[in-house]
Amino acid sequence: MDNTFKLDRIPKELKLIFALLEDRTPSIGIDIDWELFQTLSIHHRVFPLLHAKVKQVADRFPVRLLQWFERRYKQNTFKMLRLSAEMECISNLFLAQNIKTLFLKGPVLAQDLYGDLSLRTSSDLDFLIPIEHLPQAEELLVCEGYEKDDYIETVLNDWRWRHHHVTYVHPEKGIKVEIHWRLHPGPGKEPRFHELWERRKKSVLTSSPVYLLGREDLFVFLVAHGARHGWSRLRWLVDIRQMMEMEMDWKRVCQLFFTYHHPHLGGQAIRLASCLLDAKVTGEMNPLLTKRSVKLANQAIFYLEDMINLHTDPVPKDVSSYHARHLFALMSFNQKVLHVLCLLHPLPEDTDTLPLPKSLHFLYFPLRPLLWGWRKTRKNEISRGLS
């Protein structure tokens, strides 16, 4: 591991996971907390990969731990097979209606990166479609038995750029799918769908056509996704390491980062994968390895010092504050300006604070600072009253 990173607060159980994933012969002390080791392997979603690693040095691990890994590995394999079958059905359903569909993660990613769908976990199916086909796609899913799981509140049609997906759940199959019309939540610049479609890749996992992002687009997507979540799950960095070892047009990757994100975002991921997982860094990656990427990579170590879960509310206040600052630090100057400007755009809570007829919703723009200040004052008054 790179000694420029401050890893002293990372649990020794997680360092053991690093060693196993790097294919290093682990040095295992008698003070290892095996329950924590199991919990961390679940939290970071790397237990399918660890299953094979611990079997290679089985004499170093408790028998019950080996049995636990075997059970979890089989359970995950069955789940991924079910998701794969559902993915193929959805792809066929949509393509039959001329809805071009790009699967972002799930079984296709496991197959593409690891050559085996059982070596990666996935909780749902994420796919990207052109926004103009969203109503038709939602209707098709409902006809298949899916139920909408979340409803987006919006003012002045901001859902198109502020959000990026909507979730559906099949109550009988127990499968969740996310329909994306953007790769990431806005505001932000992204490749147009037709560009991504032209560079698409056909999966070898299924007999009928299922498509995913082209390799360079996939790398940039996975980096931006992992960075947005603070690399709080090791699985995302393992994916990056896998891709760093694959044949890739790095000039194209750099161009995509300079156009849609910023080079330091790619550099952060590369440095973390190199430091923590011994990923090989080549000269082609140098344009992304800025000084700022070192600082951002160090900041991301915070998310590995504890089992931080950004997906389940409530997120602890100190973690939420740190994450907000880190996300802002990840932005380019132009992105920061756009982010600040978007704070002036009306939010659903403004309509709750001061209901206005739809024809007068444009007034929320000049009124937003006043409404925000009023809510802040009321919140402070309530807090003082409760204390």
Automatic annotation (TrEMBL):
Source taxon at top rank: Bacteria
Record-linked Pfam families: NTP_transf_5 (PF14907)
Protein name listed in UniProt: Nucleotidyltransferase family protein
Source organism of this protein record: Halalkalibacter suaedae
Classification via InterPro entries: NTP_transf_5 (IPR039498)
